[in-house]
Amino acid sequence: MIIVAAVLILMAGATGVLVVSGSVGGVRIDVANFQLTTSSAAMFWTGVITALALAGGVVLMRAGLRRAWRQRREARELTRDPARDQAGLTAGAHQPPEI
Question: Which residue, 23, 17, 51, 18, is CA-closest to 39?
Fold first, then answer.
């Protein structure tokens, strides 16, 4: 897994170097009635910034989900009945009937 990640990182780095160093012409973007002409290097760096923003968003979302999960788990533990815990029963556990 680490080797695959290293190869992908090296390929992305090589692509970035080729795009930035080999950009001669401009890039024209047409969206609806809006036209933008810029260099390949500017488009590359815009993509890098966008990818970093996406990665930051994913990291923040994971942190928020972990925090919410931890809070739900703590709330569940606080609402547990101490008498059941002392009797050996846990919340949500199924005990077979005594015969």
Answer: 23
Instruction: Look at residue 86 in the predicted model and tell me its pLDDT.
Output: 61
State the residue range of the domain holding 25: 18-79
Q: CA 31 from chain center: how many Å?
A: 29
- DSSP code of 25? S
Residue 74, domain member (yes or no): yes
Q: State which amino acid sits at residue 48.
A: V
- Domain presence at residue 47: yes
Q: pLDDT tens-digit profile of 50-82?
A: 888 888 888 888 888 888 899 898 888 888 766
- Total domains in the chain come to 1
Amino acid at 1: M
